[in-house]
Amino acid sequence: MSERTRDQAQQSNGSVETSHHPATDPERKDKGYYGIPPIKHAHWTWQIPVYFWIGGIGAGVHLFSTIAQILGHKDEDLIRASRYTVLGTMILSPVLLIWDLGRPERFYNMLRVLKLRSPMSTQSWSVFAFGTLSGLISARQAADDGLLGDDNLLVRLVKLVPARFLSILSLPVGLNVGSNTGNLISATSVPLWARNWLFMGPTFLASGLSTALSWLSLVLHLTHSGEKKTMHTLHRAEKATILIEAGLIAASLIRMSKWSKPLFSREVAPLFVGGTLIGGILAPFALLFGKESRPKSILASVLALAGGLAFRFAIIKGGRISADDPEAYFTFASGDSAPQPEDKV
Amino acid sequence: MATGFLTDTTVCIGCKACEVACKQWNQLPADGYELTGDSYDNTKQLSGTTWRHVAFIENPKKRRLTGDVDLVALAEGVTEPLPGGAELDALGRWAFMSDVCKHCVEAPCQQACPTGAIIRNEFDNVYIQPDVCNGCGYCVPACPYGVITQVPHDGRAFKCTLCYDRQKDGLEPACAKACPTDSIMFGEVEDLKVIAAERVQELHDKGYSRAYVYGTPEVGGTGGIGGNHSKFILMDEPETYNLPRHPFLPQEKVKGGTIASMVAGAVLGAVVALAFRDQGR
């Protein structure tokens, strides 16, 4: 019996605590088993947030260019940049996704079944369909641009592709690529993600559109192409989308309430507060106001694009911290905060 | 017919024979030799290579021996006021609990799996087909109990199969077979429910009023999960055993989230269309 324990025993009429391990100290209020996380975090590495970003850009660019076509806005440079961008994102996306698999050689098993309740399944099918359609659309663009050679059989065949019709047809699938990433992470047991099931998809879509508009305006500026009215439209849409994105992030934070804490942790705050809120929303918004100028617009685009990437990393990293925190999960899975079948909202 | 486990933690002696039997039968690799320094439990948690895990819970709440304690009487299960004003917190002095996959009735991992690798087999157990799994890892954060993990080096996700191969041959799972105190019982879920209810009643009659079944649609199998085929008899709050009190089926809100996203898509489309205003002329 140690000196301290003997003193305690004398003071308390001979009663002694039978355990003295700090982790089982009765004064401790935290619950759980030696702080071991009760759920496991996703193992996803950098490829996943980068895919979320790139997929969002593809979806947003497609939305903008399709609406431009529907409204009869004829700017060949915009349509060309959009179609090649979407093709690029839809080539990179599956590469990143397959790269992250534990067994990449089995990627095709994703297309073995279609499960509407599994956002990972619908996402795989959406990327597959959107990628195929954007491949066809871009082929038509390449034929029109003369990239496939002059008058040969391939060119004549590809020129049969109804590009505008396919653009409209692929719009819902493209939008799903942009928003479903948010639904994918919220259909998990991770408090930070699951709590925000209502706004996660919309926020990802709005952020995707904001990065997409920035990308288009950046490309058109750097290549000195695009009509003046296109640039003007892009700026107007950018400002409105950034506002919507800011509103959705605010709504998400309110909804996440105390489970949003990881976003403000030392590890994630630089990405979320610095990269997303200040660098990706406030700064570009301020730059886009006032007189339009090329350098200002380019800087705003770069900032918004970087902010979108920071946002994806912040959400994924925040989710990891949230999953590793027993207190967060236990409080989430003990009260009324966790989504229940009977909940409407 | 649905089969499952009933793990009665009140008779678990923490021998970890189930862990060893599981590793042996399923030829699971070692997890390394690591001392946690927390307790005598050095395997810590369930994982893709540990499908049974025995937790050693030292819980000193009210654990105070006062006065002249008759240890023999204590060991015999006396729960009335003890001689000499001694206090003891029932069975709580040192709790063991052999954790395992809960084999949920509505399994979140199975709903999450995009390849259809996770299925319900003919015994109504949740089973990962190793020849189909491509290691996307989406089942891992979907599981509300932290059961599944992806095994590094292999790439695929693994968890308890409820010894599918043994059941096919009419044998009980390795852990249940090895358990020396019958803390782990295997059988048809309906039979196990009855056994669990009887045992909890027996414990209540003996004065252990805190005993309850975990894995029912009320506790531990909540939020759309619809109960678990692996049930537990517990003597303390679920969190003490690192279990969530009211877990939920994460896929319940996929539909709602998708509808919200559609609305957002329509609004953003309208905003873009409005931005084109006056530009056509």
How would you explain this protein's 3D organization?
The complex is a heterodimer of chains A (345) and B (281). Chain A is built from 13 helices and one strand; from the N terminus they run H-E-H-H-H-H-H-H-H-H-H-H-H-H. With 345 residues, chain A is mainly alpha-helical. Chain A has one domain: Formate dehydrogenase/DMSO reductase domain (Formate dehydrogenase/DMSO reductase fold). The longest helix of chain A has 30 residues. Chain B has two domains: 212 residues, Alpha-Beta Plaits; 28 residues. Chain B is built from eight helices and eleven strands. Chain B is globular and about 90 Å long. The model of chain B has no long low-confidence stretch (mean pLDDT 89). Strand 1 of chain A pairs antiparallel with strand 3 of chain B, so a sheet runs across the interface.
Structure summary:
By secondary structure, chain A is mostly helical.
What's the CATH class of the largest domain in chain B, please?
A: Alpha Beta
H-E order of chain B: EHEEHEHEEHEEHHEHEEH
CATH topology (level 3) name of the largest domain in chain B: Alpha-Beta Plaits
Provide the low-confidence segments of chain A as ranges.
Answer: 1-6, 14-28
Major sheet characteristics of chain B: 4 strands, mixed
* Beta-strand content bin of chain B: 15-25%
How much is the average pLDDT of chain B? 89
Number of helices of chain B: 8
Keywords:
heterodimer; A: 345 residues; mainly alpha; Formate dehydrogenase/DMSO reductase fold; globular; B: alpha+beta; Alpha-Beta Plaits; 2 domains; two-stranded antiparallel ribbon
Q: What does the secondary structure layout of this molecule look like, with pairings?
A:
The complex is a heterodimer of chains A (345) and B (281).
Chain A (H helix, E strand, L loop, with lengths): L2 H9 L4 E2 L29 H24 L5 H24 L19 H26 L8 H6 L4 H7 L1 H16 L4 H4 L2 H26 L5 H29 L12 H20 L5 H30 L2 H7 L13
Helix pairs in contact in A: 2-3, 2-7, 2-9, 2-12, 3-4, 4-6, 4-7, 7-9, 9-10, 9-12, 10-11, 11-12
Chain B lengths: L2 E6 L8 H9 L26 E6 L6 E2 L5 H5 L19 E6 L7 H5 L5 E3 L5 E3 L10 H4 L6 E2 L6 E2 L5 H5 L5 H5 L5 E5 H17 L6 E3 L15 E5 L19 H22 L6
Parallel strand pairs in B: 1-11
Antiparallel strand pairs in B: 1-9, 2-4, 5-6, 7-8, 10-11
